C-alpha cells in the first residue's frame, strides 16, 4: 500500500513531463480571391517617375473596386456625385449609368454638402497642415509647417481635385491617399480620398469646370435606385459619425 501511495504521484508527474503531441496550427488567413480585372486595376504602376505600390489585397474586394453601375440621376454626364455617408463617389455617365469609386471620408469631408465645381487639379500636390493641426500636435506637424512636397508619403496622394463655389475655395478636396487601409471607412481627418490608382483614373476623366454634388445624410443612396423607389438604408455605424452632419442633424 505504501508503494502504491508513492507510485501514483510519480506516474502522474512522469505523464505530465512527457512530450505532448503538437497542437494543430491555426488555419492560415487566406487572402481575398480577387478577379483578374481587380488585380490589374490595383497593381503597381508608374506615374511621373514614381512607382505607386500595388494595393494590398486585404484592402480590396470586387465590390470595393471601381466599376460601372446603374445610376439614376438628372445630373448631366460628367458630373461627380459624392455620397460621404455611403463612402461612394459616382462619375455620371449616359443612359442611367455611372462609374463608382469607393472612398474614405474624413471629418472635413462630412462637413460640406451642396454644389461646387473643379476649376483645377494638381498632380502630386503639395500639402500644408492647418494652423490648428500644428497647434494641436507641434511635434508631428511643426517640421512640415511650410508644406510637404508631393510624393508617396504625402497625405494628398497622387492627385488632388480642388472644389470651389464661385471664385471661393471651399477647402474641400477629392484626393489620393498614402493609407490604403482607410478606403471605405470613416476617418478622423481629411476630405474625400481614393486609392491612388482610382484618383489617377478619375482625374484623367475630369475637366476644368466639372460640377460636383455632395449629398447630405438625408440624400444618401440617391441615384442608386430608380425614381420613385425608397432610398436604401444608410449602411454605416453611427459611431463613425459622432458630430453634426451638414443638414444640422446630430448623428
UniProtKB/TrEMBL annotation:
Domain of life per record: Bacteria
Key words of the record: Cell shape, Cell wall biogenesis/degradation, Glycosyltransferase, Hydrolase, Peptidoglycan synthesis, Signal, Transferase
Protein name: L,D-TPase catalytic domain-containing protein
Keyword Ion transport among UniProt keywords: no
Pfam families listed in its UniProt record: YkuD
Active site: 175 (proton donor/acceptor), 191 (nucleophile)
Tagged with keyword Signal: yes
Stretches of the chain forming a coiled coil according to its record: none
Domain L,D-TPase catalytic: 78-215
Protein source organism: Thioclava marina
Annotated stretches, region: Disordered: 220-251
UniProt cross-references to PROSITE patterns, sorted A to Z: LD_TPASE (PS52029), PROKAR_LIPOPROTEIN (PS51257)
Pathway: Cell wall biogenesis; peptidoglycan biosynthesis
SUPFAM superfamilies, sorted: L,D-transpeptidase catalytic domain-like
Family membership noted in the UniProt record: Belongs to the YkuD family.
Signal peptide limits: 1-15
Amino acid at each position: 500500500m505504501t508503494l502504491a501511495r508513492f507510485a501514483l504521484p510519480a506516474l502522474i508527474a512522469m505523464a505530465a513531463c512527457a512530450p505532448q503531441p503538437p497542437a494543430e496550427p491555426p488555419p492560415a488567413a487566406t487572402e481575398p480571391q480577387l478577379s483578374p480585372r481587380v488585380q490589374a486595376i490595383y497593381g503597381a504602376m508608374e506615374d511621373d517617375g514614381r512607382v505607386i505600390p500595388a494595393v494590398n489585397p486585404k484592402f480590396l474586394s470586387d465590390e470595393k473596386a471601381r466599376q460601372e453601375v446603374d445610376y439614376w440621376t438628372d445630373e448631366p454626364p460628367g458630373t461627380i456625385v459624392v455620397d460621404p455617408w455611403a463612402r461612394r463617389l459616382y462619375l455620371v455617365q449616359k443612359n442611367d449609368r455611372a462609374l463608382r469609386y469607393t472612398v474614405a471620408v474624413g471629418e472635413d469631408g462630412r462637413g460640406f454638402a451642396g454644389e461646387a465645381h473643379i476649376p483645377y487639379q494638381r498632380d502630386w500636390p503639395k500639402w500644408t497642415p492647418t494652423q490648428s493641426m500644428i497647434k494641436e500636435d507641434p511635434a508631428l506637424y511643426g517640421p512640415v509647417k511650410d508644406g510637404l512636397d508631393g510624393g508617396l508619403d504625402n497625405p494628398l496622394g497622387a492627385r488632388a481635385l480642388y472644389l470651389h463655389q464661385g471664385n471661393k475655395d471651399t477647402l474641400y478636396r477629392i484626393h489620393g491617399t498614402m493609407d490604403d487601409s482607410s478606403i471605405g471607412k470613416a476617418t478622423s481627418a481629411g476630405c474625400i480620398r481614393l486609392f491612388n490608382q482610382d484618383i489617377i483614373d478619375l482625374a484623367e476623366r475630369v475637366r476644368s469646370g466639372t460640377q460636383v454634388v455632395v449629398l447630405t445624410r438625408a440624400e444618401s443612396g440617391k441615384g442608386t435606385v430608380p425614381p420613385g423607389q425608397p432610398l436604401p438604408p444608410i449602411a454605416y455605424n453611427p459611431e463613425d459619425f459622432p458630430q453634426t452632419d451638414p443638414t444640422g442633424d446630430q448623428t
